[in-house]
Amino acid sequence: MFDYEWGKHMKGFNLSRTSRAVALSALAFPGAGHYYLKHKKTATLLLLVTGACVIKIAMVALNVANLISDRLLKGQIALDIPSISLAVKTELAAQSDIFVSLSTWLLLACWLFGILDAYRLAQTATKMKQVAEN
Fold this sequence. Notes:
The chain is mainly alpha-helical.
């Protein structure tokens, strides 16, 4: 349906295939470089795991924000930055569990894996192309 080449908008930058894949994985989302390199299963897996981690972290952040705003509206927290900052730190410590920590580390691991694996796949594809041309 859509015949859009990933990275087409980067033509003026004269980037190699490897650089484009790494840039997409690093700057867009984990898996974007894999999608660009036509490794759609890996891209989908990275996107799903990353999405689940982001949703978990966002749910905790929104819950803390709601609790703090309720306490602000009730006058339980003073309207100054140090008081609000302390309340946020306290609520985050109370809300944090093993799943939040796991989600944070898994998100970081997916991002690093996405960048490094996109680089590896692009380099391998480039070498294979050079061998085929010779």
